[in-house]
Every structure is written in C-alpha cells, then in structure tokens.
Amino acid sequence: RLFHGNDFARFGPDESFLLIAPISFDASTLEVWGPLLFGGRLVVFPPQSPSDLKLLRRVIEEHQVTATFLTAGLFSQVVDLEPDALKGLRQVLTGGDVVSAPHVRRVVEQFALPVTNGYGPTESTVFAVCFRMTRPDQVGASIPIGAPIANTQVYLLDDALAPVPLGAPGELFIGGDGLARGYLSRPDLTAERFVPNPFASEPGARLYRTGDLARWREDGTLEFLGRLDHQVKLRGFRIELAEVEAALASHPLVRQAVALVREDVPGDKRLVAYVVAQPEQSLDVTSLRDILRERLPEFMRPSAIVMLDALPLTSNAKVDRKALPAPDGAAPVRAAYEAPRNDIERQLATICGELLRVERVGVHDGFFELGGHSLLATQLVSRIRSTFGVELPLRDLFEASTVAELSLSVLHLTAAQQASEAELESVLEQFEQLSEEELQALLDAESSSGS
C-alpha cells in the first residue's frame, strides 16, 4: 500500500536510501522497505544523532546516498547549515511537522532536487498524503500536504462527521489499507480514535480521526492548518497557534517560528513566540510586531517574542516544545533605552514592568510593544487610577502607550481635575455669600428652565 501505485518518490535498483529513523519509528518502514522491495541499496546511518550535520554529510557522500527522509526540523537545519550535504542526492522526502517553504524553494532552485512533503500519523503507516515539488513555481508561501496516496482515503469533517465545504477547515480523517488495528491494550482509546467509516460500502471499514485541522484548496490539495489540541483558549478567545506561526513566518527574515501558551506564573497564561532568524541576518523584533499587527487581531499577538539560534529538537528531530525556554524578561524596545526622568515616569515604568514582568522599561517603550494586551491594559488603567487618582480612558491608552505619553496623559488629567476642583471651590464660595431667598430663587429659575 505504501509503495505500489504511488509517485511520491522513486524506488528501484539505482536508488540508495539512507536509514536514519530508529527501527521503532514508523518512518523506518519507508527507509528500510523502500529500497529493499525494489532492488535498491540500504545505507544504515551510524548509531549517532543525525543532528551531527557534518557526520550526516560524510555518510551521504561516502556511501553515495541518493534518497533520504529528513524530518522538517532537520531538513531546515541541513539547508541552512550544511547545504552541500544535499548535492549528491536525487530526491529528498520531508515531513513530520510544518515544512518551511523558503527552504524547499532554495533546494528546488539551487539543486534542482525534487522535494516531497509527506504527511501521515503513525496510525496510518508513514504517509497518507503527499505533495511532490520538482519546480520552483510549485512552492508557494506555504507547503500543502498534498493529496492521498494510493489505497488511501481522506475526509475533512465537522463535529457531526459531515463533510465541510471547499476551503472550510475541518478535522482530517484517514481511511484505507494503511490503518493500524488499534492501540495495544487500550480498547477505550482505540474506540475513540478509530471510528466507523460512514462513507464506505464494505462492512467494518473504519476511519482514523487525526486531531489535525486542514482545508481543501482549489487545486485539489490539502493545506494543513494545525492541531485541534493546538487550538488554545486565552483570555476567552480561541487561538489557532498555526495561524500565529504562519504570520511570524511571513516575515522575510524568519527561518522558523513556533508559538505556544505558557503559564510560568500560576493563573497568568501568556502567548509566547519563538523565532529563529535567517542565517547571518539581524532580525528586529519591532518589525515582527509590526507584521503581526497587520495580520492578526490583538488577542492573537504574542506577549513575548524570544529569539533563538535554533529550535530544540527531540530525538526524532521534531521541535521539542517542552524544551523551549521561558521569556527572560529582556523585552524588546522600540528605541534605545532612556531612563525615566521624573517621579511620574518612574512610577509608570515600575507599574508597566510589574504587569509585563519586564526588568527595565524606558520612557519610549510602548506598553503593547513590550507584550501588553487588552486584559493587562485594564489592569494598567486600574493601577494608574489607584496611584495617581485620575481616570485614564482605555481608548487613550491604545492611542498613546509609551511611558512618556502616559506621563503626559496623567499630567493633563491631573491638571484638569485640579482645575475642576478649583472651579467648584469658587462656585461654593459664591453660594455661601447668597441668602436663603437668593438660593431659593436660583433653584426655582433652574427648575423652570428644565435644567
């Protein structure tokens, strides 16, 4: 089922496949049986991590490997740091995570090397859907996961297990010969994930519900949108982390991006982004926030953006989200740091730093540029009220959010409030000089005028 009748890769006596995956990992099925079933040659990688890119290149060159499967994370690292490792190959297969379009385009253009993006959970045996790219014009802003391979069916269904319209997101279900029987000694989980196939004519047919979100494109290929369990709820809003990552990746200097929700302080959940810049490029975090402001609503913008040299990978060369570090409080600033110049600015900087958990806030640092959001904005307004005794309208905060601008707002509100108090005192003094008859006449006049 995986090899016969499919065109996502070439198999035959002229091909040498590299076995990188552990034998317990389902990708090894492709790497072992792909060459052996068709008279090809199998090259076994040494018992060391393939993240040793120098070793990976040496093995490919010395053993004249022509085809290999690299997980999405490892593929990006090879393209960036050891691209010559790909020179002797005739085809590359990748997948296991979201594949970077700029990296695929570079390989197809520079090496004229076909690249296949393969999608498929272990429960459907390696690949269920593939997209093979042999020309640069096939590589768009994002890489689709493609169309189902032979003897495989895929469906995009809603919560009622009904097909969704073209272009609409739906959960991806897989059927066909590649499905596993179930989970060993877990009948409850098997019943939950492997469900009866309502579209099949043969009795007993099943579908595997992947938990992945996808949509059909007009060209008949599938676009992966992210995990349903990566659809998080933050401050009452549902957020699809894949959309945040896609917005970050749209920046031309971004190589990789990951978004997740952290709760480093109990009860304080925050959306955090991790970004790796293109090699030898200096990425300005402010420009990232500008792009996010254009593409995402406020509630979907990360509170913190952490720059990394590389994303941590698991032993299977997938992004290790659990190993991503907590933001260290060294928040980006829009301009060079300038210390607060007076008591009001110092108090405001302290308040902003406490709310945002940022060590140092300068007078020209914007509250929202440092990771503020609408919920924190209401807390800031409350803190300003209790500290300075003035009511700052929330809309004013969104229009002028630097410490310097907030200081001016506080000064203006304080002055207006003092003027109102002085005016009130003057009026009261005038009232005190009036007789009871004059006061009654004044009240009667106001009453008759409707005031």
Automatic annotation (TrEMBL):
Domain Carrier: 339-414
GO molecular function annotation: phosphopantetheine binding
GO cellular component: cytosol
Keywords recorded for this protein, A-Z: Phosphopantetheine, Phosphoprotein
GO biological process annotation, one example: amino acid activation for nonribosomal peptide biosynthetic process
Gene3D superfamilies associated with the record: 3.30.300.30, 3.40.50.980, alpha/beta hydrolase, Luciferase, Domain 3
Signal sequence range: none
Cofactor: pantetheine 4'-phosphate
Homology family: Belongs to the ATP-dependent AMP-binding enzyme family.
Protein name: Non-ribosomal peptide synthetase
Organism, scientific name: Corallococcus exercitus
Lineage of source species: Bacteria, Pseudomonadati, Myxococcota, Myxococcia, Myxococcales
